[in-house]
Each structure stands twice: as structure tokens, then as C-alpha cells.
Design brief:
elongated; 14% strand; transmembrane; alpha+beta
Length: 596
């Protein structure tokens, strides 16, 4: 998508919404890259010892940390500048080009929203979602992405809690032994998978646990301690890898991250949305094609373009008129360019902790960076103390614990990114619909016997056509500049709807039904014909002169008389100006002309 810039439309130059997040990503990138370089330096001694594949473990960890750090740096570089052109945000329905007609399912939904004077929200499905909405009653009015993420985060929290309880039951049931080692590996891997599910957009989520998932986790808590001893006897020993403590830390840290994310989501709610509509309905009669009314509406809406940015057109139906009599319908649905409703300002990292909407997002990033720092520190300790010839259980515990913290830290940073990209917009939606009946007619103007000039015109007579104008200001929101936009508020604009309807009625009633010459060329030709009619049977020699006089009279306006210039009298002897009533010159004493 291209970035469209206009110097006269500076309100779309939004500040970078990821400015504060970039600082947290820079910190994470520096720590990951530094830890990776440190492990690469530490791995040289282990590789020089020559103890097989085990000696390259610090090297692999260093490469992994370095790649993760560079990936975080890549995200920072991609978010250094933020471009938000005139073609963003996305429309509320598929848009039509300037010369296209038609409609879509999305435009029908918009019209139904205006007609019903109500916003539509998806009802929660499933017992867990209904439990969430029963506890947070206003969640149903939150933006749809917030609803979806909150539902899935609630399910994720339940999955983590049930997994934690199941793990504790299994851990206490085994205590130690081969089965306990395999049980720790199972729960560690399951917890990591819970947090590695994608979280890339507003409707994606890390987990979607229903009743089947809960029943499965509960059954695992009951039967895994019973079944593992029978299976573990045939499995290799994992006495060098004890993951029970690491799994406990992983689940607790994950629960903290999910809890912070859920609280941050709740601060994205704005309360009960406004829902009221302005509709102006009238009937009118006119003697013109209804397409003329649609053209005037198009011109009127173009005069009110916001920042001279074309409106988004979602539906347009042109009236079809045939011969005889029939019915017609026409409509136009347009939305003005969505503009920032809250005055987007750049969020500084320090100020983010004082703003209700961003406070818990910032703390979520703080937790993510802290967990990454803790994970990198433990991995560096592992690399410094690692000896390929010795298998140290406690040392491998540091390795797995560091990896667990990196997983949770990555989850926190990715979760916060979704919420940093929120934008609120205000726009105006107009829907004009026309319905009526028409009859074709013919009108003659002029006396058949006496008038030399007569006019004739085919008319479309429309009686009591229904004209409806719907107008509302829309509050909408997006999470990400290319994401889908959702309506979160509806406010009627009665004055605008009333003025637009009155303007269209006045335009329809002012349409002329008589054909008459209006241009200068028409007037010249009419004058020539009139001159020829007046001359009748006169001599041919008089015809050119009469035609020229007629043309001149029709095209040249009569000269405007100039005011007369009064010249004062002068003395004939010394040329000095004198008054008209004087008898002698006051300068030289010469007798003036006309003095008696």
C-alpha cells in the first residue's frame, strides 16, 4: 500500500505509536545480542576440549540468543518511522471507485446499523466465555478485538491454572524417580506450547481451551500419576534433567504475564457506547430525472470532503427510468475520511506509566524485558560453568530455567505490541435513499397560431417521492494500521441531516421545465430569424443591413452615457479661470465675453 502525502492534509501525520515500545525492544535486543556474543566467546573453550556434540551446546545457545536479539533489533528498525497515508485506515465495507455503482454485504450491514439505530456485537459462545462475560458485564461493549483477546486470555489463564494444579498433584504423587523426570518434561513442554501459540493480530490468541480441554487437563491430573510408572520403565533415564522446579517457575511467570495482559485489555474499554441516529424523511414532487438529484447530492458531499480527501463510497444505486410509468429507487452511502478523535500524541516511555490506557501495557513490557534479562543471565552462568566432561544436574536446571524465562518474556513483548497499535477515529456516515413512482409526459410552451417561437420537452413527472437522509458520526477503532476497523460508537447529526434534505428539496423544486435559448449564439441566431421575419418581401439589398442591425442589437448592449464634463470659462486675455457670473477678469481687468 502506497503512502499518499498532501501538504494541506497534515492531520493524518500521526506520531509513532510504537515510540515507547521501541525503547523496551532496544533493551531486549541489547541484552539478547550481548548474551549471545558472551556465550559465543565462552563456547570456544568448550569446543577446544573436544567432547563431541555436548561441547557445542553453548555455541548453539549463543547463536540462538544472537538471532533473537537481531530479530528484536529488526523490529525496532521497522518501527522507527510510522507512515499513515490518506488511504488508511481500512474502510468499514468494500469501497467503490468514483464511477462505479453497486453495493456489498458490508454496506448492507452499515445501512442496517443506521436503520436499527443499534450496534451489533457477537454473543459469547461456550461456557468459559459466558463465565467471563458474566463477571465483566461491560465486556460485550468493548471493541471486538478486545473481546476476542480477552476471551482467549481468560481461557489461557484457566489452562495455566489447571495445568499448574495438575502438575502439583503429579509432582507430589511421584516425588522422585524416572517417572517424575518424565512427568516434569511433559508439563514443561506443554507449558511452553501454551505460550508459543501465535499472537500476531487482534483476533489471534495463544490458546482456545474449551470444556474438552479442561476435562483433558483434569483427567491428566488424575491419571498421569497412575499411568507414568508403567510407561517410564521402558523409557531412557532423565536423571540429568530435572524440570520440576523450572516448570513451576514457568507456570507462575506465565500466569503473571497473562494476568497483566488481561488487566491491560480491560483498560482498553471505554464504557457504554453512544447509539443514536439522525434521520430526516420528507416527500417531494418534481419534474426532472431523479439522477439530477443524485448528481447534486454528489456535488454537495464533495464540497464537504474532510481535508479535501475523497469520501469512502460504499454503495451507489442509479435510478432507472423507462418510457411510460414505473417505479425507481436510488441510494448513496458515503463516509468521510476518518480522522483522529482523541488527538494522537507521541507517548513517551515515562508518561506511559501515568496514562490509564498505556500503564499496564508498559508494565507488561517491563516484565517481559525483566524476564529476558533474567533468562540471559542464567544462560550466561550456564555457559561460564559448563564443562562438557561433567554432567551437572543443577547446571542444566539453570539452562532450562533460562529458556523458560525467555519464552515468557517473548510472550509479554508480543502481547504488548498488539495493544500499542491502537487508533481511535471519528468520521461521518451519510446514507441517502430515494424511492418513488414516475410518469413520462410531454410539455409544449407557446401559442400555436400567434407565437413564432414554441418549445417542446419530454418530462419525467414524479409525485410524492420519498427522500430519506441518515447521518451519524461514527467512533471506530483499529489495532494496527492495516487491521480491520470496528465501530464502537454512533452519534446522530440531526442538523446536518435536516440541512442536506432541505437542500435537495430546494434543488428539485428549482429545476426548469421550459426549454429556451440561453447562450449568446442562440440569441444571435434568434435575432437573425426575427429580422428575416420582419423584412418579409422587402428587397434583397436591404436584407444584409437589417440582419447586421438585428445582430448588433442582440449582442451589443446600448452604450452607457457618460457624465457631461463641465469646463470652467477662461479669460481671453491672460487665460486665467474665471466664474461664469464675472464681468471682468480679476487678474488683468479684461472685459469678459458675454458681459453686457
Amino acid at each position: 500500500m502506497a503512502y499518499e502525502y498532501n501538504a494541506d492534509s497534515r492531520q493524518l501525520d500521526f506520531p509513532n505509536p510504537f515510540y515507547a515500545e521501541n525503547w523496551f525492544l532496544v533493551a531486549a535486543s541489547v541484552m539478547l545480542s550481548g548474551g549471545g556474543i558472551g556465550l559465543l566467546l565462552l563456547s570456544r573453550g568448550a569446543i577446544a576440549g573436544g567432547h563431541g556434540l555436548r561441547s557445542v551446546l553453548p555455541l548453539l545457545l549463543g547463536i540462538g540468543l544472537l538471532v533473537a536479539g537481531l530479530n528484536q533489533g529488526r523490529r525496532v528498525l521497522m518501527q522507527l518511522r510510522f507512515f499513515f497515508g490518506r488511504s488508511r485506515p481500512a474502510g468499514l465495507a468494500p469501497e467503490l471507485t468514483a464511477d462505479a455503482t453497486g453495493r456489498s454485504g458490508g454496506s448492507d450491514e452499515l445501512k442496517e446499523t443506521l436503520r436499527q439505530n443499534a450496534l451489533s456485537y457477537p454473543e459469547p459462545q461456550g461456557p468459559l466465555n459466558n463465565l467471563l462475560h458474566a463477571g465483566i458485564r461491560n465486556l460485550i461493549f468493548a471493541p471486538r478485538p478486545v473481546q476476542f483477546i480477552a476471551q482467549r486470555q481468560f481461557q489461557t489463564a484457566i489452562a495455566i491454572v489447571v495445568t499448574l494444579l495438575s502438575f502439583l498433584v503429579a509432582w507430589l504423587g511421584f516425588g522422585n524417580g524416572k517417572a517424575a523426570d518424565w512427568m516434569g518434561l511433559f508439563y514443561f513442554g506443554f507449558s511452553v506450547l501454551l505460550l508459543l501459540r501465535p499472537l500476531e493480530s487482534g483476533v489471534a490468541a495463544p490458546a482456545n481451551v474449551g470444556m474438552r480441554g479442561l476435562i483433558g487437563l483434569i483427567l491428566a491430573a488424575i491419571f498421569v500419576p497412575v499411568l507414568l510408572p508403567f510407561v517410564a520403565s521402558g523409557l531412557p533415564s532423565l536423571d540429568w534433567l530435572s524440570l520440576n522446579v523450572q516448570t513451576l517457575f514457568l507456570l507462575l511467570a506465565a500466569l503473571l504475564g497473562v494476568g497483566l495482559y488481561f488487566v491491560a485489555l480491560m483498560h482498553q474499554m471505554t464504557g457504554l457506547p453512544p447509539t443514536n441516529m439522525a434521520r430526516e424523511q420528507t416527500s417531494l414532487s418534481m419534474n426532472c430525472h431523479p439522477k439530477q438529484l443524485l448528481d447534486e447530492l454528489d456535488r454537495t458531499l464533495q464540497d464537504t470532503w474532510v481535508e479535501r480527501i475523497p469520501n469512502r463510497r460504499y454503495a451507489k444505486t442509479v435510478p432507472l427510468i423507462g418510457s411510460g410509468a414505473g417505479t425507481f429507487a436510488a441510494e448513496l452511502v458515503e463516509e468521510t475520511q476518518p480522522m483522529s478523535g482523541t488527538g494522537q500524541n507521541r507517548v513517551e516511555p515515562g508518561a506511559a506509566f501515568t496514562m490509564p490506557r498505556y500503564r499496564f501495557i508498559a508494565w507488561l513490557d517491563v516484565v517481559g524485558v525483566a524476564l529476558i534479562a533474567l533468562g540471559v543471565a542464567w544462560l550466561l552462568v550456564f555457559g561460564a560453568k559448563f564443562r562438557p566432561e561433567v554432567v551437572d544436574v543443577h547446571l542444566f536446571s539453570l539452562l532450562t530455567l533460562g529458556l523458560a524465562m525467555l519464552v515468557v518474556g517473548h510472550y509479554c513483548l508480543r502481547a504488548g505490541h498488539v495493544l500499542w497499535g491502537r487508533f481511535d477515529f471519528v468520521s461521518r456516515l451519510v446514507w441517502v435513499e430515494m424511492q418513488g413512482n414516475y410518469q413520462s409526459a410531454q410539455m409544449n410552451f407557446g401559442n400555436t397560431f400567434t407565437d413564432r417561437v414554441k418549445t417542446e420537452k419530454q418530462l419525467i413527472n414524479i409525485e410524492t417521492m420519498t427522500l430519506r437522509v441518515w447521518a451519524a458520526e461514527l467512533d471506530s477503532v483499529i489495532f494496527g494500521k492495516n487491521a480491520q476497523r470496528f465501530i464502537v460508537g454512533l452519534r446522530g447529526v440531526p442538523d446536518y441531516a435536516r440541512q442536506l434534505a432541505a437542500h435537495l428539496v430546494d434543488f428539485a423544486q428549482e429545476q426548469s421545465v421550459i426549454v429556451a435559448p440561453t447562450s449568446r449564439t442562440d440569441m444571435q441566431k434568434s435575432a437573425v430569424l426575427g429580422a428575416m421575419n420582419r423584412l418579409g418581401g422587402q428587397a434583397d439589398a436591404a436584407l444584409p443591413q437589417a440582419m447586421m442591425q438585428a445582430i448588433q442589437g442582440a449582442t451589443t448592449p446600448p452604450p452607457t452615457p457618460l457624465p457631461a464634463t463641465i469646463t470652467p470659462p477662461y479669460c481671453s486675455g491672460c487665460q486665467t479661470p474665471v466664474n461664469a457670473a464675472d464681468r471682468f477678469c480679476g487678474n488683468c481687468g479684461h472685459a469678459l465675453a458675454g458681459a453686457g
